[in-house]
Fold this sequence. Notes:
The longest helix has 21 residues, at 205-225. This protein has helices spanning 70-81, 103-118, 125-135, 139-142, 191-201, 205-225, 228-247, 258-272, and strands spanning 2-14, 19-21, 26-27, 31-48, 55-58, 61-62, 86-93, 147-150, 163-167, 175-179, 278-281, 287-292. By secondary structure, it is α+β, with helices and mostly antiparallel strands. The chain is globular, with a radius of gyration of 19 Å. The strands form three sheets. Strands 1, 4, 5, 6, 7, 8 and 9 form a seven-stranded mixed β-sheet that branches. β5 (55-58) and β6 (61-62) form a beta hairpin. It contains eight helices and twelve strands. (3R)-3-hydroxy-3-methyl-5-(phosphonooxy)pentanoic acid binds next to α5.
Amino acid sequence: MKVTASANANIALVKYWGKRNEQLILPQNSSISMTCDGLRTVTTVEFSDNYKKDTVVINDEELKKDEKNIIGHLDRIRKLARIKSKARIVSETNFPVAAGLASSASGLAALTLAATRSAGITMDEKELTILTRMGSGSAARSVCEGFAIWHRGNKEDGSDSFAETIAGKNHWPEFRMITTIVTESKKKVSSRAGMAQTVKTSPYYNGWLDSVDDDLTKVADGIKRKDFQTVGLAAEANCLKMHALMLTTKPAIIYWHPATVEIIRAVTQWREEGLPCYFTIDAGPNVKVICASMNEKEI
Ligand code: PMV
């Protein structure tokens, strides 16, 4: 059956950076994100015995190699469905791929939703987040609407490392995240490779693990109370702490461009001048600015 599904990117307010299990993609820490309605991937999957091989087309371009581990994820789904058919996957995103805008998150979530249905598997949301997680960690959160938490979990088999919504999309409609595009070029170090190197080599990694629970509490509580300042300040500090881990990785991972720093400085200055806004940055140079809808135009 040919099935189309869509999923939206999510941007973490408390970041995931580091795995405790590389194969199952189990994180070292829990993370919290918001799913963004403007950044969307729409994916169509068709398993058919008429196909001789798997084909993947992203934004009109056929992938020559399995860059994003898409075939590995399809194999996982084929195994669950006990089928051997090859698939054709056609995917469109409305934003740049691999530029730190969480394209892998919406991509893997949309793929999981479409491919499971196309293969005839029925799963509840929790199971879907677990399966999506095995394709790309942060993608688990893109299965959920609104603000989502991805639990670290403690079990070796990953059955308690799933994502769930902590506040639905109608909870805080004034919450905005503005994406700046500093560059559309692909990043040199993938988050997968980068975080593995950080866990191995950054002398600050234990400091991250010791302090991240406090960030999670602050952000979750701020979301519940719809308190911009609490969420914004905690998200900003958490992002800077993650980039400190990247900078202290050996060899150093520096995702920022000059314009990244310019935007950070602008956001800080606007805040000093009385315009409430906060930034967050993922594994890339593009800055996202958090603000209330009433200030969106001005920012
Ligand atoms: O799931 P990945 O491999 O795309 O890693 C995501 C890492 C960050 O975007 C930097 C943080 C996060 O929690 O989304």
